Amino acid sequence: MGKLIVVSNRVGPLKDTGKAGGLAVALVDVLRERGGVWFGWSGQVSEEGTFGEMKRQKSRNVELATVDMNKADYEEFYAGYANRTLWPILHYRLDLAEFDRPYEQGYRRVNERFATRLKPLIEPGDVVWVHDYHFFTLAGQLRAMGVECRIGFFLHIPFPSPDIITALPRHTALVRSMLAYDVIGFQSNRDRNHFIEYLIQEAGGERVGEDRVRAFGREVVVKAFPIGIDAEGFSQFPKSPEGRRQSQRIKAILGDRAQIVGVDRVDYSKGIPHRFRAFERLLEDYPENRGRVSLLQVAPPSRSELDAYVDIQRELEHLAGQINGRFADVDWTPIRFIMRGFPRKALAGLYRSSRIALVTPLRDGMNLVAKEYVAAQDPEDPGVLVLSRFAGAAEELNESVIVNPYDTEEVAGSLQMALQMPLDERKSRYEAMFNKIVTNDAKRWAESFLSYLSG
Ligand code: GDG
């Protein structure tokens, strides 16, 4: 068996994977098992960019291989096509998508250069596993250079219905190049079905079996592989010194009051303003919660170089200020809005000391916060997960309280129901969800994908 080559925009780390999250843990695990290379962007912008020297860092049988981007690559490929065009479209936000020809050209150029740099690393028998929307066209470029090995692709974010994706200029070319992969993985059946619908409606494709599709003269596997977390590992974090410290800090200020928690990168896909309004509605419609229930929102900023992200930050600051101004009392602040990140073990402590997690993305490939919250609960006194129907996680975690994040009244009612939920019901919902996330964990996800990729 040849080695495994993983490709993703950001690479690593090989050590301290616990700090980085479940994905890095799972990928390093499978890389260690068969030996391999993790290839991608160094995170640096330099003059030479993708034509510069490849940095290589080896630890036993696993190597990180990275290249820089130059300024134009970064602007056009990363900040441009990936995050100003594809991210909004794939999250159903046609209103925010920017269609700019130089972005698209930059995307193709960087994919081509990545392919050029990757090709010499590939030996006979190797398999290549490419991650996410930055690299839809990478396999097409590799095939054009004569690479014949098995290449798989996993999309971490949603694939929208054909009505949305067809608004992307030259969408056919993009999807055609995806068919150069041998296995195309999605987070949920919903996303997989959208992709198949697209192929049938727009490309004369046909299904040739449960997980196989023929289109553009190719036959490929198209399947949902819902991503997991290291649930066992994460369930231990609240008991770590850092986890306990955070829980105690929260308990000291809450006393017998209840806390709702939200944790998200600041991103317009996460529905954070909708969440704030639903919490406000809870205080309006069920006034007994005033002074009794608070919302803790942890929101580390991301992609702050993009206007849409600055706008959402401002909107959230404004909204939190307005709601706090309206309802706060001298000894109670309704919303604690913290715009920075916490270490993972600290997060676990925050999850554990919160009666409810309110996870309300307007669209999300999976949403790992939902799974982390469940993993962090005390089995004897677990909290309640209130989860958007538009998160991929809702397909699996159907014992959560599922809501439509656009329906403020419904979310407020569900919060009230969750606050009053008896222990028996909390336990039975928690146990069902915990079993699923322990079974379908990150390791199993990676192994399952690779079993299809190995053919
Ligand atoms: C994409 C897809 C899909 C958040 N705040 C802090 C922090 N985080 C961590 C969370 C979680 C991760 O970041 C976020 O993962 P999500 O899944 O919620 O969302 P995206 O970043 O949008 O991820 C998503 C995922 O890829 C995997 O396939 O599920 O749908 O959009 O692990 O805990 N981590 C730390 N401090 C923070 O303050 N340490």
UniProtKB/TrEMBL annotation:
Organism superkingdom: Bacteria
Purpose of the protein: Probably involved in the osmoprotection via the biosynthesis of trehalose. Catalyzes the transfer of glucose from UDP-alpha-D-glucose (UDP-Glc) to D-glucose 6-phosphate (Glc-6-P) to form trehalose-6-phosphate. Acts with retention of the anomeric configuration of the UDP-sugar donor.
UniProt keywords, alphabetically: Glycosyltransferase, Transferase
Annotated pathway: Glycan biosynthesis; trehalose biosynthesis
Catalytic activity: D-glucose 6-phosphate + UDP-alpha-D-glucose = alpha,alpha-trehalose 6-phosphate + UDP + H(+)
Record-level GO BP terms: trehalose biosynthetic process
EC supergroup of this enzyme: transferase
Subunit structure: Homotetramer.
Stored PANTHER family: BCDNA.GH08860, TREHALOSE-6-PHOSPHATE SYNTHASE
Lineage: Bacteria, Pseudomonadati, Pseudomonadota, Alphaproteobacteria, Hyphomicrobiales
Gene: otsA
Family that this chain belongs to: Belongs to the glycosyltransferase 20 family.
Pfam families (UniProt xref): Glyco_transf_20
GO molecular function: alpha,alpha-trehalose-phosphate synthase (UDP-forming) activity
Enzyme Commission numbers on file: 2.4.1.15
InterPro entries in UniProt: Glyco_trans_20, Trehalose_OtsA
Protein name: Trehalose-6-phosphate synthase
